[in-house]
Amino acid sequence: MTFENNEIGLSVEISGHLVDRIREAGLAHYPNEFGGILVGEYSKDKQTVKVSETILPLTYKSSKVSFDRGIDGLKESLLDFYNAVPSRIYVGEWHTHPNASPMPSWTDILAMRQIVAYEMVNINNPIMLILGLTLTNSELAFYVYLNNKLYKYENI
Ligand SMILES: [Zn+2]
Asked: How much is the pLDDT for 112?
């Protein structure tokens, strides 16, 4: 699947298989929110990010309307991905919105802002995947945080 935003000229690629795995992880915690980290690589021109893995958090706090992942073990997992061939890095975050649309909340926007400020994450434009989730359905939306603004990617 490819998502892009014409205004900023950036796009995201993700396999249906990874989306299925993310959906399953989300359903396992339904009706509470759940989430994780997105790992992948950038194209040479930096315009496209290919998301190829997720790291599920070892520790987290979640409720029906909130999700807060911990950082336990994260540095080590990311280092393993970085040192592997091909080298892959942190590219963003995903979380579910059980029984709700995949629209970012104010808290979600603040979280993206904090991620950019966090020195371990060496990227300026992390992506956010929100999965609106019911037991029978799911709706996917990708956003990118760039220059203090959140842009939505359109499915193409
Ligand atoms: Zn949210």
From this structure: 87
Q: How far is the CA of 81 from the centre of ligand 1 (A)?
A: 26
Instruction: State in Å: Cα 65 to ligand 1 middle.
Output: 8
User: Rounded to the nearest whole angstrom, what is the distance from the C-alpha of residue 95 to the centroid of ligand 1?
Assistant: 6
- pLDDT less than 70: residues of the chain: 119-122
Distance 108 CA to ligand 1 centre (A): 5
Q: How far is the CA of 98 from the centre of ligand 1 (A)?
A: 10
Domain count, the chain: 1
Q: At 10, which CATH number?
A: 3.40.140.10
Q: Return the SS3 of 101.
A: coil
Rounded to the nearest whole angstrom, what is the distance from the C-alpha of residue 83 to the centroid of ligand 1?
31
pLDDT value, residue 39: 96
Domain around 69: 2-155
Q: What is the pLDDT of residues 132-150, one digit of tens each?
A: 999 999 999 999 998 889 9
The answer to whether the predicted template modeling score (pTM) of the entire model surpasses 0.90 is yes
For the chain, give the number of residues: 156
